[in-house]
Each structure stands twice: as C-alpha cells, then as structure tokens.
Design brief:
Blueprint lengths: L1 H11 L2 H8 L4 H13 L1 E2 L15 H23 L5 H7 L5 H29 L1 H20 L4 H13 L3 H12 L2 H11 L1 H21 L2 H21 L5 H16 L5 E2 L7 H18 L1 H32 L3 H6 L1 H28 L11 H22 L5 H29 L3 H45 L3 H15 L2 H4 L1
Parallel strand pairs: 1-2
Organism: Letharia columbiana
Main location: membrane
Membrane topology: Multi-pass membrane protein
Length: 501
C-alpha cells in the first residue's frame, strides 16, 4: 500500500508515461501536446501587431496604393496606345490586312486572359511582391521587344506576351484587400480603380499624337521607360502585403533562431510541383465551375468590358469617316468616355463604404453583397447609353451628341466594374486573387473577341441597329446585381466551393 502511494504521484506527474503504460491518451497528455502545438503555430501577435499590413500607417498604405496605381496606368496606357497608330504600323510592315488593325489590340487582351490564371495563384503561394516584380520586369522586356520588331508576326507575338505579363489588373485589388479593413476598403478600391479605367481612354489620345510626331515605335519605348521607372519604385518601396506569406517568413525566422523545425504558420501549406499545378490551374477553374456567384458576375463584367472595347476600337474610324476628324482630333473624343468613367468612380468612392458603415451603425453584420447597389444604376444606364451612341452616329447628329453618349456609358461602366471587384475581394478573402483571375480572364476573352465581331455587325446592320443588338443583350443582364443582393449570400454559403477551400 505504501509502495503504491509513493509511485502514484510519479505516474500522475508524467502524462507521457501514463499514456505509454495504459495504452490511452490522458487528458493531461492531450493538453500538454495541444499547448506545444499552439505555441508552435505562428500567427500575428494580437490585433495590433505592426507586422500585419492592416496595422501599417495610412501614409505607408496610400503610398503603396499610389505605386500600384502608377504601374496600372502604365500598362493600361500601353494597351491602347497603338490603336490610333495601327494604320502606320500596317504601312511600315507592308500589310493591308484590316484584321491586323483589330488584332493589334485584341491580342493583348487575349494575353491578359491567360496571365491572371498563373499570376494570381503564384501570388497566393509566393506572395505579392516577388510575383509583381517578376511580371513588371518581363513587361519592360517585351515592350522593348515590341519596339524593335521587324515584322508583323513578331510584333503581334510580343503584344501577346506583353498582355500575359500585366500583373496589376489581378494583383492590385487583392493588395488593397490586404491593406485595408472592410469598412475602409471601398474608398481605396475606387481610388485604385482610377488608373485601369482612365488608362485605356488616355492611351489612344497619347498614341495618336506621339505616333504622328515621333513614330509608332516610340509608343513602346515610352511604355518600357515608364514601366522601368515604376519598377525601380517597387524594388525600393514595395513590401509584402499578403499575410499568408508574411507569417510563413515569420515562422522561418523562428525556426532559424530556435533551431526548432516545428514552427509553422497558421496558414502553412506544402508546395510541391504537382501541388502548384493543381493550385495554379485548378483553383480558378474550380471557382468558375463551383461558384454560381463568380460565374454570373464574371459573365456580366465580361459583357460590360467587351462593350467598352467595342467603342475603344471603333471610335477612331467612326469619327474619321462620319465626321471627317483627323487621327489626332478623333483620339480626343475618347476624353468623353474618360470623363464618364471618372464620374462613375466618384459615385463608387462616395457609396461603396457608406452602405457598409450604415449597416454597422445599425448593429448589422457586414456582407459582401452590400457593395453591389451602384451596379443597379450602372446596369440601367448601359443599354440607354448604347442606344444613344448608336443612333446619334447613325443619324449623323452633331458630334457632341455621341461624345456625351460615350461619357454616359463610361459612368455606367465604372459604376458596374468597381463594385464587382470590391464584392469579390470581400467575398473570397485569402483567395480573392484567384476569384479576380477568373473574372478578369472572362473579361479579357470578351474584350478580345467582341472587337473582332463588332465591325462585321456594324457592316451588316449599321451602327444604329448593331448597337441596338448590344443594348438588348445588356438589358438581359440588368437583374444580375439584384439577384446577387437577394440570393448571393445564400448561394455562396451553399456552394461546393466552401468544401473545396
């Protein structure tokens, strides 16, 4: 009896020995193991950890927003700067194939459709910074290659590669999501959205005058120069914003300092070649197939973007042939679209966060669907603006009439696209880059295909009836934001995507 009394405390004080002797795990053993696991799971040190990008100073955050916006502006200017210079390019390469005139722009969009499918998952594995720097450098290289091209096929090939290396369109909204809390994200998203909306408008204006003054090759030299200057800013000031990668680095530092290899990030994943292929190829595809929300919203965004590109690729010809404008003067008509885009952006800036704040003030929970109300206004205006533009051109109304119509369309486009991207960032969190990649790929495919079809449509039906067809299709999509506001949350929560990720 005495011997048992002296050994019992020893057994009780050693949970591992008790587990070994008795054949089952004691509560003490489980607790000790769990404590050890918890201590080695690396996360931020509380809600105020300065390593968390959400806690960075506003000055630092807005400097990064300015930096990524600058790169977006450069890449979007380069997209359409060659549109008014297309006749000069065809003449130099001794080609009279009019298909090339459209392909010079649409092939870039086709490249942008493929690039995000790899850029987004790579950024979710290796972080935003290394991926962004890599694609920026490649963009500079391919811009220079386009400037020194010696034949049409070489030039088109490098335009395609240039499109693939545009990382800003998919990474920028995700970076804004990394930096700002939900109730302040809408304003930042609207400001970051200025460049991708204004760039395609200013591009033809700059391209028209620069190509006439110093030659079309300088368009691509200038793109490479300004992209290179911006990339120097990235190398000097941009720091990782993706919290998964930040915590992976923190865990690596702890393993090095302590010599204990059991430290793992709370978001730890194992990277194998097959795992990367699965993530890079399958995640965006599965998101498209398993999430009705992404599929429906992606189709709507693709349609709106495609209509914008139809205008951008046909306006120069319309104003030159129907109104007798010169190349430079015709390029100035794009400013109407730019003014409208700016007005729509200001609407989003004023409203995107207001709905969220109003709900929180009333004690409600924030939902991604609260980003969508501006899309309702945009959806209603798009068909009307298309009809306005088409029939004022068809009837040869004074040139300010179609220009004002394009401004109205620009307003509607901004009011549609910016809330859509804000919604995806809020709804899909850590995997927002992949969700955006799916949407952007659909958008770019449509942006590449529709301008190829539009000339045939206009030739057969005329600008008036051809644009009316586009307006009727746009009218079918008007209920989309309402459906997402009413049923979006329910569909997201029931989606098989939740099981997969």
């Amino acid at each position: 009896m005495e011997s048992y009394a002296t050994e019992a405390p020893e057994i009780a004080s050693d949970p591992a020995k008790l587990e070994k002797d008795s054949g089952f795990r004691s509560l003490e053993a489980e607790s000790a193991t769990q404590d050890r696991v918890d201590r080695h799971v690396v996360d931020f040190d509380g809600p105020d950890d300065p390593e968390n990008p959400l806690n960075w100073s506003n000055t630092r955050k807005w400097c990064l927003v300015g930096l990524i916006s600058a790169m977006t502006l450069v890449t979007n200017l380069a997209t359409l700067m060659c549109a008014p210079a297309a006749p000069l390019i065809l003449r130099e390469f001794s080609s009279n194939n009019q298909l090339y005139q459209t392909l010079l722009v649409s092939i870039w969009e086709l490249g942008e459709a493929f690039g995000p499918l790899f850029i987004a998952p790579l950024s979710e594995i290796y972080g935003r910074a290394p991926v962004y720097n890599a694609v920026n450098i490649l963009f500079c290289i391919f811009s220079i290659a386009g400037a020194v091209s010696t034949n049409m096929h070489m030039f088109i090939a490098f335009r395609f590669l240039n499109g693939i290396t545009v990382g800003a369109i998919v990474l920028n909204p995700s970076i804004v999501g990394d930096l700002f809390v939900t109730e302040r994200r809408g304003n930042a998203m609207a400001i970051e959205g200025i460049a991708p909306l204004i760039g395609p408008v200013l591009g033809p204006v700059i391209g028209g005058y620069v190509s006439q003054a110093i030659g079309w090759r300088w368009l691509f030299w200038l793109a490479a120069i300004f992209a290179g200057i911006t990339e120097i800013g990235f190398l000097a000031f941009f720091r990782e914003t993706y919290k998964v990668r930040i915590l992976e680095r923190k865990a690596a530092r702890l393993r090095k300092v302590t010599g204990d290899d059991s430290y793992k990030s709370v978001h730890h994943v194992t990277h194998t070649i097959m795992g990367f292929l699965t993530v890079s190829v399958m995640r965006p595809a599965r998101m498209l197939l398993l999430s009705p929300v992404i599929f429906l919203l992606g189709l709507y965004v693709a349609l709106v973007y495609a209509y914008t590109y139809v205008l951008l690729t046909t306006m120069t010809e319309v104003f030159e042939q129907r109104y007798g404008f010169s190349t430079g003067s015709a390029s100035l008509t794009f400013l109407g679209l730019g003014i409208g885009l700016t007005a729509g952006l200001l609407l989003c800036q004023a409203t995107l966060d207001r709905y969220v704040s109003r709900v929180q003030t009333r004690g409600g929970a924030m939902k991604p669907e609260q980003r969508l109300p501006p899309m309702i206004a945009g959806g209603l205006v798009i068909p009307a603006a298309l009809l306005w533009y088409g029939w004022t051109v068809q009837t040869r109304a004074p040139w300010p009439a179609p220009v004002v119509a394009t401004a109205t369309l620009g307003f509607a486009v901004a009011a549609t696209l910016l809330p859509a991207f804000s919604y995806l960032v809020d709804a899909f969190g850590l995997h927002s880059a992949s969700a955006l990649a799916v949407t952007i790929s659909l958008r770019c495919v449509a942006g590449a295909a529709f301008p190829l079809v539009a000339p045939c449509l206009y030739d057969r039906l005329g600008v008036g009836w051809g644009t009316s067809v586009l307006a009727v299709v746009a009218l079918v999509f008007v209920p989309v934001p309402l459906l997402l506001m009413w049923f979006g949350e329910r569909v997201r929560l029931r989606s098989r995507l939740l099981v997969t990720y």
